[in-house]
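Hi all, posting the design record for the shared folder.

TITLE: backbone redesign
STEP: 1 of 1
STRUCTURE INPUT:
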């Protein structure tokens, strides 16, 4: 995986002759590990086909604000993006962005986005030098938009001058720089954070097991975010086939008992424990030594309760606010918030992150999540649907506030 693994990029392509280079940009982004969501303006569709970008990114190309109305495409795309890149950006699109207009899917999506925005202008020299364009660019840069280029060179029709879109490699470098500039302060420097992620598997026989649908994406996002914020991070990963985030020490486990042993072996040095893994409540009381045969009839599997690691950690403290700071998760399908308050009290945690896993756009195996963070102090913070990378930082914001000085 490349250095942009886990990063979701909104790639906007507008109607200029340089639109063909967007295919190279998409390929470079994917090669670096990014997930790329292409959005074409109607003008861009005259220069580059949707099939090209879909083939390169493996993602659906969107262009019409009237498509997928129930899914709120523009809001969902904007919230999910970690960074947006407009390549190329015409004078017309730059003017619309500066004026806050939203008359197509791309500009509507960008109004809903809170991520860093990189704009790569492309136009004739006279258009670039026009006072209106200069004012619009100044407006965007004043808002923190990263404007790269344009370069000087051969333009459409053989003209030579400023207005040529920057090369794809330069655009990717700008994306990396925008992400770096948006990185949070290293407010967990000197702290040790233990994160659990994935789903435990409880063996029935050498072949079969009891398990759940957790992939570990949320926990891995938290581990990655904690490391970016300066923490020393230990990730206890239960059956998660995801790459280890940079700067994170990984401990692989399979069962709930193995996860408990790993966490208890790390907790003495921890300032924070985030229990994001989906841990099985029960396990088979006995494990068959050989594969159970269908011909022998339907087996009776007697279950026994697994230890509740979060509750055990909570009980070991004198009360909420003691170290380590404890963060639990509650994946619910019915009345999730009320169940979350009940679980927060029972477990003795400081924070409980509740998400409704019956939603198709949140919970297990998705790249986005929508959560409510409940606090033992009675606080409630709702995080609207966003990329799990963004949700992870919002959870850690609450952790940092709980740690105090």
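Okay, here is what came back for every position:
SEQUENCE:
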């Amino acid at each position: 995986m490349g250095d942009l693994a886990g990063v979701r990029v909104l790639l906007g392509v507008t109607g200029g002759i340089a639109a063909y280079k967007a295919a190279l940009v998409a390929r470079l982004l994917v090669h670096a590990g990014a997930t790329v969501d292409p959005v074409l303006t109607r003008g861009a569709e005259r220069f580059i086909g949707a099939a090209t970008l879909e083939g390169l990114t493996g993602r659906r190309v969107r262009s019409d604000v009237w498509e997928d109305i129930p899914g709120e495409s523009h809001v969902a795309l904007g919230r999910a993006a970690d960074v947006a890149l407009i390549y190329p950006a015409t004078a017309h699109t730059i003017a619309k962005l500066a004026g806050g207009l939203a008359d197509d899917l791309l500009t509507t999506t960008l109004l809903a986005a809170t991520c860093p925005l990189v704009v790569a202008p492309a136009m004739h020299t006279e258009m670039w030098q026009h006072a209106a364009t200069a004012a619009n660019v100044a407006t965007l840069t004043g808002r923190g938009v990263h404007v790269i280029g344009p370069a000087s060179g051969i333009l459409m029709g053989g003209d030579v001058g400023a207005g040529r879109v920057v090369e794809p490699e330069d655009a990717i470098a700008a994306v990396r720089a925008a992400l770096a500039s948006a990185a949070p302060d290293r407010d967990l420097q000197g702290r040790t954070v233990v994160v659990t992620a994935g789903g435990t598997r409880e063996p029935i026989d050498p072949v079969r097991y009891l398990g759940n649908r957790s992939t570990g994406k949320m926990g891995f996002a938290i581990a990655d975010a904690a490391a970016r914020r300066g923490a020393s991070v230990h990730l206890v990963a239960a059956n998660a086939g995801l790459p280890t985030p940079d700067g994170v020490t990984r401990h692989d486990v399979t069962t709930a008992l193995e996860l408990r042993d790993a966490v208890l072996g790390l907790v003495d040095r921890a300032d924070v424990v985030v229990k994001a893994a989906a841990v099985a409540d029960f396990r088979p009381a006995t494990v068959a030594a050989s594969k159970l045969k269908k011909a022998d009839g339907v087996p009776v599997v007697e279950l026994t309760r697994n230890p509740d690691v979060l509750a055990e950690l909570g009980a070991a403290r004198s009360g909420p606010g003691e170290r380590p700071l404890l963060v639990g998760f509650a994946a619910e399908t019915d009345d999730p918030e009320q169940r979350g308050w009940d679980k927060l009290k029972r477990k003795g945690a400081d924070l409980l992150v509740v998400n409704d896993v019956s939603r198709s756009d949140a919970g297990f195996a998705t790249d986005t999540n929508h959560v409510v963070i409940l606090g033992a102090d009675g606080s409630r913070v709702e995080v609207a649907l966003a990329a799990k990378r963004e949700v992870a930082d919002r959870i850690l914001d609450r952790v940092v506030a709980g740690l105090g000085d």
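COMMENT: Residues 8-181 form a domain with the Rossmann fold fold (CATH 3.40.50.1950).
Let me know if anyone wants the other runs.
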